[in-house]
């Protein structure tokens, strides 16, 4: 592909051998290294590439090579379709572009969906998988994708849409299974799909691919009030005119990790131990106005946030929706 696009004079290499597998930080680290190489006009070597495959049409630079150009391409090709290509270029300083901010009182709720325990049903999940041509989804991905699919029409093809996923436990069931398999089986018998589902942004990859979302993507994890953090981030993105809509998907699955954690919780117990919630923010005039309140909500719908009264307001269809803060969870002392 690189040879077809850029010809035989292209210099390329991989930085992973120098940094290791940094998961969510890999793209940022590679971009920083690419910028440094462009500044120094020299590539870094592709370490441990002494015996490349005969099937590779072009070989990476095994040793540092001088580069005369003023542009570079950094690609991050990750799990489940979370792929990015960034081109950086040396340029003369220019006047900043005028950017019109969007008043926060213009930010509205375009759509929402709430999945409770037992949703989606196996039949509904089968329909969703057939719709997008998917198989072998773990539970947290099923929950997240089903919630996102319920509001897919409001996303409008994903152009200039930001995606934020929220969770407390993430793909904990999958992660535990992957670790068990590493201990119990030889490397060649471990399913690669298990590892690719064990990262926090795995569900976001599926959502982005299926709904064709091409905007910025964030994965937020926490126990205190991560859903509110996601809403605040979404409002900042819209207010700064950095995107046209924001899709927020909160989901938690029930498993050994969540059950153990909930036994240690002494306050703010979630209404549902498993479920998902999707929210679409935009600036539509016919949407429900969203306001943030610093008073404390009574109950949380899911461990990762979403106040129960916030979901009730949305279901009642009132014109102004208030998102209140959640009480910080308290935990039993183990020692």
What features would you describe in this structure?
By secondary structure, the chain is of the alpha/beta class. The protein has two domains: 88 residues, Thiolase/Chalcone synthase (Peroxisomal Thiolase, Chain A, domain 1), CATH 3.40.47.10; 222 residues, Thiolase/Chalcone synthase (Peroxisomal Thiolase, Chain A, domain 1, 3-Layer(aba) Sandwich). It is 33% helix and 21% strand. The protein is built from twelve helices and eleven strands. The protein has a seven-stranded mixed β-sheet, sandwiched between helices. Strands 1-2 form a two-stranded antiparallel sheet. Strands 9-10 form a two-stranded antiparallel ribbon. A hairpin with a 5-residue loop joins strand 1 and strand 2. Helix 5 packs parallel to helix 9. The longest helix is centred in the N-terminal third of the chain and has 15 residues. It is globular and about 60 Å long. The mean pLDDT is 87.
**Which fold does the CATH topology of the largest domain refer to?**
Peroxisomal Thiolase, Chain A, domain 1
Q: What order do the SSEs take from the amino end to the carboxyl end, as H and E? A: HHHEEEHHHEHHHEHEHEEEEHE
SS element count, helices: 12
Total strand segments = 11
Main-sheet strand order equals 5-4-6-7-3-8-11
Question: What structural class do helix, strand and pairing data support?
Answer: alpha/beta
Low-confidence stretches: none
Shape: globular
CATH class of the largest domain: Alpha Beta
Mean pLDDT: 87
In whole angstroms, the N-to-C terminal distance is 57 Å
**Could you state the CATH homologous superfamily of the largest domain?**
Thiolase/Chalcone synthase
CATH architecture of the largest domain: 3-Layer(aba) Sandwich
How much of the polypeptide forms β-strand, as a percent range? 15-25%
Biggest sheet architecture: 7 strands, mixed
Instruction: State the helical fraction.
Output: 25-40%
Q: Could you tell me the radius of gyration in angstroms?
A: 23 Å
């Amino acid at each position: 592909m690189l040879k077809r696009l850029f010809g035989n004079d292209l210099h390329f290499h991989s930085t992973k051998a120098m940094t290791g597998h940094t998961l969510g930080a890999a793209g940022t680290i590679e971009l920083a290294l690419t910028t440094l190489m462009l500044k120094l006009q020299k590539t870094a070597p592709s370490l441990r590439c002494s015996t490349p495959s005969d099937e590779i049409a072009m070989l990476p630079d095994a040793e540092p090579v001088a580069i005369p150009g003023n542009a570079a391409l950094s690609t991050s090709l990750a799990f489940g379709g979370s792929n990015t290509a960034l081109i950086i270029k040396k340029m003369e300083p220019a006047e900043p572009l005028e950017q019109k901010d969007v008043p926060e009182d213009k930010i509205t709720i375009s759509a929402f969906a709430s999945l409770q325990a037992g949703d989606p049903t196996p039949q509904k999940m089968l329909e969703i998988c057939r719709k997008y041509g998917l198989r072998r989804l773990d539970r947290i991905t099923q929950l997240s994708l089903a919630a996102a699919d319920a509001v897919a029409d409001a996303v409008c093809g994903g152009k200039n849409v930001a995606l934020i996923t929220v969770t407390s436990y993430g793909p904990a069931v999958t992660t535990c299974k992957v670790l068990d398999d590493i201990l119990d089986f030889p490397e060649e018998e471990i399913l690669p799909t298990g590892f690719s589902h064990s990262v926090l942004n795995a569900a976001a990859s599926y959502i982005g691919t299926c709904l064709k979302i091409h905007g910025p993507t964030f994965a937020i994890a926490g126990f205190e009030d991560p859903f509110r953090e996601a809403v605040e981030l979404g409002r900042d993105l819209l207010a700064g005119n950095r995107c046209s809509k924001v899709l927020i998907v909160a989901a938690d699955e029930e498993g050994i990790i969540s059950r153990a954690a909930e036994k240690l919780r002494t306050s703010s117990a979630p209404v549902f131990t498993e479920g998902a919630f999707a929210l679409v923010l935009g600036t539509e005039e016919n949407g429900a106005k969203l306001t943030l309140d610093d008073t404390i909500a009574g109950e949380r719908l899911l461990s990762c946030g979403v106040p129960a009264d916030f979901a009730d307001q949305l279901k009642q269809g009132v014109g102004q929706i208030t998102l209140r803060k959640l009480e910080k969870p308290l935990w039993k002392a183990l020692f």
